[in-house]
Write a structure and sequence with these properties.
The protein is an alpha/beta fold and about 230 residues long. It has a single domain, classed as Vaccinia Virus protein VP39 (Rossmann fold, 3-Layer(aba) Sandwich). The protein is about 25% helix and about 30% strand. It contains 5 helices and 10 strands; from the N terminus they run H-E-H-E-E-E-H-E-H-E-E-H-E-E-E. Strands 3-2-1-4-5-7-6-10-8-9 form a 10-stranded mixed β-sheet, sandwiched between helices. A hairpin with a 2-residue loop joins strand 6 and strand 7.
Length: about 230
């Protein structure tokens, strides 16, 4: 797991209402990454189940993401961080995620685009922001983001919310998530003496925030999908 992904999950845990149980799919902690890949401390005191296709550090339960054993509408929050590139059938996986989430359940997920091949244990795919939007097609609310070169970002991430019923409440959560996300990346880039552009877009509210120029480019877009 990468540091920026750890930061995204930390901000998510602070700014969104986290429903239990929390299920991490792809929780196996690769040797040497145990500290940065351990997301449990962000959800202290909450029921947390680490799932993966193989036994190991961070794994409580063996699961096939394309055929989850959880019952329908029983999971509050799903973490799917830097995992989808290792899944053979991503559409089947997201259908399963949607099936097991509660009616107002949330999934947060990330993956790579401009990134080296890495076998944990297999590496199949690279994703654009549009690909993540497509994979979250059933979700009523979608927050899609990326980091890096706008034409070839190194990171793509998304939050999918199953129901529209909390749309007004989620606007405030989105705004705080956005603010912290900008701040963390500004601080990081200042420390690295980089030159960069950061832009956050809140779809349907039409707010565009342009900030100081740095090397990386960051976009986060919010979709209220009333067509589904």
């Amino acid at each position: 797991m990468r540091k920026n992904i750890n930061n995204i999950v930390k901000i998510f845990s602070e700014e969104f209402p986290i429903q239990e149980p929390i299920v991490e799919l792809g929780s196996f902690q690769v040797s040497g990454q145990e500290e940065i890949a351990n997301l449990r401390p962000f959800f202290e005191g909450k029921e947390f189940i680490g799932c993966d296709m193989r036994k190991g550090t961070g794994v409580d339960r063996i699961e096939d993401i394309e055929k989850l054993s959880f019952q329908d509408s029983t999971i509050g929050t799903i973490l799917l961080m830097d995992t989808l590139e290792h899944v053979q059938n991503c559409h089947s996986a997201l259908n399963e995620v949607y099936r097991v989430l509660k009616k107002d359940g949330i999934v947060i997920m990330s993956s790579v685009m401009d990134f080296p091949i890495h076998d944990h244990p297999f590496d199949y795919w690279r994703f654009t922001p549009e690909a993540f939007k497509l994979l979250l097609g059933k979700f009523k609310i979608k927050i899609i983001g990326y980091e890096g070169n706008p034409r070839k970002p190194h990171t793509v991430f998304a939050i999918g919310i199953k129901s529209l019923s909390f749309d007004l409440k989620y606007k405030n959560h989105f705004d705080q998530f956005k603010k912290k996300y900008i701040q963390i990346n500004n601080d990081l880039n200042r420390n690295l003496h980089k030159r960069n552009t950061i832009k956050i877009v809140r779809n349907n509210i039409r707010n565009i925030f342009k900030m100081k120029k740095y090397k990386d480019h960051i976009d986060v877009l919010y979709y209220n999908d009333t067509s589904n």
